[in-house]
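Appendix C reproduces, verbatim, an entry submitted by the partner laboratory led by Prof. M.T., so that reviewers can inspect both the input and the predicted structure.
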Amino acid sequence: MIVGICNIELSMYENHSLKEKRHLVKSIIEKIKHRYNVSIAEVGMMDKWQKAEIGFTTVSNNKRHVDETMQKVLNFIEQDGRFDLAVQQYEIF
């Protein structure tokens, strides 16, 4: 079994409230869940309205598949345009 774990920090400079942040973060999390079948959640910075910390993981029997899935998720977030992305942790076991 191969497990991929990624922890990322998102910056949202055009947000003006926690309500806007929650809407954006919930939106991107739901899209990623359905499109890439990964486990994903907001895991930190819940009280900051311009930053979010999101963690996601995927499991497979093929290391290449895990790496490709994780890269696709990161590319999807980067291409969204509403976030600046900083990868904090990226591991495959």
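Residues 2-92 form a domain with the Alpha-Beta Plaits fold (CATH 3.30.70.1120). Additional entries are available on request from the coordinating office.
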